[in-house]
Amino acid sequence: DSLTHRQRFIMRSYHRLHGYRDKDHAILLLRTAKEILESVEIDESQNLIERISAQEQELENLEVVNFGIIYRKLEALSALVDRWQPLKKKLSPNSAPSDTGTIWEDILQALDRLFVVRVDQSSTRRFILSDEIDVSLLKLEWKLHLQEMRFAVASENQFAYSESLRAFERAIGQAKLHIVDINSFQTLIKQLAEYEIGALEFDLDVILDELKELKSISS
Question: Model pTM greater than 0.85?
Fold first, then answer.
């Protein structure tokens, strides 16, 4: 039972390390598992205890970014997107549009909507920022990039993470003249670009395999 309990701690440590990059929690679980093993009177367990201690020290020296930090910053970006509303141009008293101008503007917007495939790939031109539906669609496009980043983090895919972040940065850049707090966006983007989220060269599979052998011996 003690060995089974210890195996559970090792599995949880593995999950915290590779699922969340929560190094401190992973080390605590690993240390607890070692203490449980030390309480089991099995001669063959000494080698495994020493291996766990070595792995624990290796993990202490490993540079690991906690994924929780990345997820929180992605949530902060998502909140900025939710709050964003395009800047409205102020007209001077002498520059009020004429009825003719309004009619032509309506016609041009109607024509724009007729073309499902719009030639210009600039987000701010493909969408009419005075239209609430188009603004909602633009926000959805931005949030899809953020969701792609979350999936990339979860799968430890550095290339996909970087590509999605660049796509989001380009999309925001196209609308920066319409964003009051553009600096908040750019600061978070810069911080996210500094993180390495590729797969760790560290695992506990060998320890788990040795534990299974130890369990078979003890039984």
Answer: no
Of the candidates 180, 175, 157, 179, the one whose C-alpha atom is nearest the C-alpha of residue 70 is 157
pLDDT digits (tens, 9 = 90+) for 90-137: 444 444 444 445 666 665 565 555 444 343 444 555 556 666 777 888
Integer CA distances (angstroms), 158 to 45, 68, 121, 194, in order: 38, 16, 26, 11
What is d(CA 69, CA 110) in angstroms, rounded to the nearest whole number? 44
Is there a contact between 153 and 161 (Cβ–Cβ < 8 Å)?
yes
Per-residue pLDDT reduced to its tens digit, 18-36: 788 888 998 998 888 888 7
Residue 70 CB contacts under 8 Å (≥ 6 apart), including other chains: 153, 192, 195, 197
End-to-end CA, the chain: 10
Residues 6+ positions from 81 with CB-CB distance below 8 Å: 139, 142, 143, 146
In the block, tokens 């970014």 appear at: 65
